[in-house]
Protein 1
Amino acid sequence: MKPEADYRVDATEARAFGRVAVLMGGDSAERSISLKSGTAVVNALQQAGVDAEAVDVQGKDLLRVAAENRYDRCFIALHGRGGEDGTAQAILDQAGIPYTGSGVLASALAMDKLRTKYVFAGAGLPTPAFRMMTDASQAEAILASLRSPLGVKPAREGSSIGIYKVTDAAELRDAYQKACEHDPLVLVEEWVSGGEYTVSILGDDTLPVIGLSTEHTFYDFEAKYLSDDTNYLLPSGLSSAEEDYLKELSLEAFRVLDARHWGRVDIMQDADGGFWLLEVNTIPGMTDHSLVPMAAEAVGIGFQELAVRILRESLEVPS
């Protein structure tokens, strides 16, 4: 990220924020990314004049930590299970501590990609055809009901962990077994080959659409966080009408899950130009490879200001 002009809150807002715990780390498969996100956020908030401190929740009783330290609010930078799935949100609700991001219901729904797709389908939103897979013996039946190639993914993991592209029954059975190592609930959906796009949401508004291009089979964990050869298209390369449509679609997907404050919506475009919702991320990454800071920077919102604006949303949540 480029250096930004110093962004600071005034004394009144600093008092309104009070003591802020930036929750990070945890025990999920995304722990390493969460630590990077959380460290970047706590540094940005401190530089902006907020009384913020890092809290690695790994192996800790969050309710007890919150009560003993008397935090006034929390910035949740926890990715994956235990932080992004409604668990931390439920604990903070019980403690009466405001926090950034979506509440319990939206967090739990968005973390579960299978049930997210049920909601999208029920609301009439475009999402690739899919099936739930609970046993390797279902491979032939699933291939008969969906168009190959297929994407196989653990339903409740993030950062593209455990995702595989398959074309036949043997590959599907093997991918299912591997995905089960992360989650016994496995989602199988039709693979959309084409452009990949992401729309970041901040408050009630969308940030610029980003197009993604990678030499990998798809925008996987390495492409997201480790590779330096991923291409981020900003402008996205879409027409203004297409960008407007993606922004409206993303806001609708965000709202139908009852998400709030901030997040990111991932979308694919097929060879015929149609757009398909993949998922909603309620606590996206905040690392130097992350898409929300990139989209914010494109409209002049530096990282410090972005962190403060996300935190500011928690002032609207009743304690």
Protein 2
Amino acid sequence: MKTFALSALIGLLSSSSIMADERWIEFVGKDGPGQGKHIVLISGDDEYRSEEALPQLAKILATHHGFRCTVLFALDPDGTINPEQHHNIPGLEHLKTADLAILGLRFRDLPDEQMEHFVNYIESGKPIVGLRTSTHSFDIRDSNRKYAKYTWTGNVKGYEQGFGKQVLGETWVSHHGDHGSQSTRGLFVKGQEKHPILAGIKDGEIWGPTDVYGVRLPLPGDSKPLVMGQVVEGMKPTDPPAKDAKKNDPMMPVAWTKTYTGTAGKPARVFCTTMGAATDLENAPLRRLLINASYWALGLEDKITPDSKVDLVGEYKPSPFKFGAYRKGLKPADYAK
């Protein structure tokens, strides 16, 4: 009995997160192709519950694929998570050792000392995965601030519309589908069916209750759309396409790849999807898309397998997307369970 209890305790410890600092959480990678790679996942959006989605994504990447994952949050001074706190994301210094950054941000106005870590990373040539509102990650309204050019409405010559447009390929444009009443079905772009990011996914399987975002076509530079967003009439995956045919003619890209060459002169692999809310992650094909994209961004596409494990880890009951609907009073450790 004692031996069994000890084994159970060792098993629990080996699968748990490391709480070296209560301001963020870290998951130790188990066996898998991700061993030796460090992914930093940065949450901070008011509506789509990235503070719930990114810990779950980190658990999947660590538990099933072996990556070490650090998850950061927007925090109030008392250490509680507050996605409406636009001025504080502790732990961005972890980007110094990151091999990949995964973003779930919206309209952040971070102090220069925090932005510096972010800017050093994106200009270094290391890969980035951006989810949903990360196209408009920053809203630095004082044009005299050191990093103001990264704001979503930036007008610096050669860096128009800031981080979203220049790095991810688009900034905020519009809701293309009807928000809260029309969902999104992912259809493969013709000719991209065999792209490694789509491995193990069938055309039309990707679905999420969030609506399609508008983008300006064509996307810039070497952007390559992989998945188009079919506007679905209702909020179920079995619902038909929107009755208004104009909603799907043309369809908007909802997932694409591109490169970004920063000041270091090294091109970075970039993947962006305008899906990725916490509720979207209940869809296994979408989870697979994000896991595959992480491998691809890291240059590990040869390690992608169509049957790799993308099961949810632990209990996952995401909150609906809505302003002001975050779970109040929680600390990062509450998402490490």
Protein 3
Amino acid sequence: MKQDWNHKRVLIIGAARQGLALARYLTHRGAHVVLNDRRSAVELQQARESLSALDIEWALGHHAPGLLDGMDLVCLSGGVSADLPLVVEARRRGLTISNDSQIFMDLVPCPVTGITGSAGKTTTTTLVGRMAVAGTKAPQKAWVGGNIGLPLIDQVEQIGPGDKVILELSSFQLELMHTSPQISAVLNITPNHLDRHATLEAYTAAKARILSYQARQDTAVLCRDDPGSWDLKSLVKGRLLTFGLNRPAAGTQGTFCEQGQLYLQYSGKLQALMPLESVRLRGTHNLQNVLAACAIAAALEIDCESMRASVETFNGVPHRLEFVREWKNSKWYNDSIATAPERSAAALHSFSEPVILLLGGRDKNLPWESLAALAHQRVKQVVVFGESAGKILNALGSTHPGETLLGIHRCGKLEEAVQTAASLVEGGEVVLLSPGGTSFDEFNDFEERGERYRLWVNNLS
């Protein structure tokens, strides 16, 4: 449903990817856009240049309450907290608060598939996107976006009613949305972003909104193996598809793995999808991602051949257990996306080799004790770096005789951690950057951190 934006005054808080895309869209449709960010004009020079041809008002270096005067709408970019004082004041004034994802959902002419979760959503969204592209015949198209890659608000008017849209949705986006995708998947819910949501209950409530506005004709996809996801089944209004490692109960539709084969139990039929050896990604968590993608693809009525071909050629997404190189007879991996201890634990379970683990970054007010206990059992050396180093060291404690963990080392920044890891390598190990913290103490985002890590590892000689 198109909306008349002509002469509407819109304040967009946050000049990140989503805010910039929304600013382009609204300005092209006659809105007067004020783009606000606490960063300076120098810090945002590249962003300002990208929008220089548009009549956009910039308000930088502050979040002054006066920005709200005369506004019709306030929109938040993904990284902006709904508890920001300026947003709280907007709410007090009765202003509507939205974001690019909700506006996209109001406009998109075709059904939407939304994917959320604490871990694995980018890998799963990417894989479902590949399946959708393979299984969609021209003139129809498959579109992949949202929290992954490019926001689709820029392309919404090119999307046709017969197309397929696959969106990755974060808790930050979902907490402002009042429309659910027609197919909504919750991969898992584990403690994450508690620096933003304060409690696991609030974080779960934000994730659950992906199901809250579905109708009886819609489909939910949940994980049988994850309590956080499975506990949301009471919210399901329509059809339920599931995924998990083991065969579901009779009458339960979904995907599973049994005797080296992936299966789909669906519409009263049991169908073999592909051999387990078709999955090229390491780790049980990635097998779960593949099973999730196949369940979502089944909901999209994508043929099994498109599923199989997409899995067989899928080597993963950059910065997610990405193999960098072999050096000193050891394999170096980049898992910069692991911004929570639970993700680092999942990465550790992917390896049987001795591991030199790089942990650090900025903490999200998450517990480190479980990961620390796992490190004592499965890791040979831990190298700690960054802002959260002290908290991680407290959780790790000391090494003890008879344990796998032989040493704990503290560094200032990631580059020093890479050099320290290089000095510890003896051969036959896996060196794994799976930090468990965000990148914002040293880098703009996890992608920049991963790229720098990759560079420093490739420069080892």
Protein 4
Amino acid sequence: MRALLGFGDQRPSLSAVSLLGAVSALMLASLLHPSAAFFIVVPLALILPIMYAYEWFFAWRQQLAVLILVILFIPIQRYAMAGGLPFQLEPYRILVALMLAGWVMSLLIDERVTFRRSGFEEPIVLIAVASLFSELANSQRIATLDVQPEVIKGLMFLGSFFLIFYLVVSVVRTRADVERVLEVLCAGGGVLGIFAVIEYRTHYDAFDHLQRLMPFLTRLWPDGPGLSRGGDVRVIASAQHPIALGAVFVILVPLSVYLAMRPGKRIWWVAAFAVMIGALASVSRTSIVMLAAVGLVFLWQRPRQTLKAWPLIVPAVLAIQLAVPGALRNVESSFFPQGGLVAQQSANGDQNRLSRWGPTLKEWRRDPLVGEGFSTRQPQMHPETTVLDDQWLKSLVETGILGVLGWLWLFGRSIGRLSREAREDERGGWLELALAAGVTSFAVGMAFYDAFSFIQVTVILFILLALDASLGLARESESEATARGASAATVGSGESS
């Protein structure tokens, strides 16, 4: 399993044997039937490069990069592969299953691949316990509502998020590794931002037509009428909803800015601009609130440098107006509707966020400790359980105080540790600050949409949390190496004297 860590100093003999065998098979097929050669050439052209350089293809760097790109560019719950199974065989599910299987095998047989404590074990355990206890305490309700499959599916998704988290913690071991992962994330996000601008201006979603490039994909649902705000169609691109797409872009904004701030890396400003434009193209109030959270984190940690950047707002606004005309106007009107935002969000029964708080809190009071059951609110099956558009409120009513405390603990520990390291890091702490801003923006955005229902942005969150853990472990390793070096130098000087 050396390939998992990207090791290997020579090409495997298996590749040479495979190449010789493939050429022999091709020659034999050509002699038997000339047309048969075609059916061998095409598969060989695809398979042989992987066989010859499998150590590169299956190194963790490439696996994580492929996972990120699949998550970013193949819309989740929009495409699947034919399989005849009782669940949708979506590409990201297949990839995650294969990666996790390889990781578990490596943990068992390769001493170089080890399970590493992340420093987040306590809140993770609390979240898991709260979710399981909420199911046990509400087993009769789950049976009455007939939502057992949905509950099991929700628990499996939660478990897969944490498994991805620990996989990344296990294989991302240095600061340079963290930056490589961020480069893939932000480069992919930049390309996605460009497609979002194209969709905003033309109403053409390229991700609705992936079957032309990937004929093995099957469309799960037909084209819909689209979502609009202020008369303009809201961009969805590869996401499940415009709000979730905007959230992805906002999370990537501080990370792209960090990459661009490195010496000689100004090209990353293109990615930073693209994700910023993409966030506004979603015409989402949630995106604006999350952007404000990012700005406040930078202002809190780097007030002088942040205030110096304010003059850039004017050219940025002009560029935004040119790229996505009308987006700023629509965002403004969404924040300042006729009659006021609070009145709008309190009206129309249970159709708006604020109006849902009262009835939902009454439900929560029935069992405030563990809630009414994780993943039991299924509006598509039981319309009386409305979509809350508030992940914090949803977690409270489903998993009670225990579940919310677990998530608060997880976010608080991550943001607190990153903020502390940003102040103490001798390299400036901009990487830690960017990660803290990204995680903070997700936590703030949870109050405005049911974040965990959208897999793309949630996977990205757990990757960022894992990078936070890996940075902490890398810092500990550097400190231990420095201490060992100092100890060895002291011993050496004592012997020489």
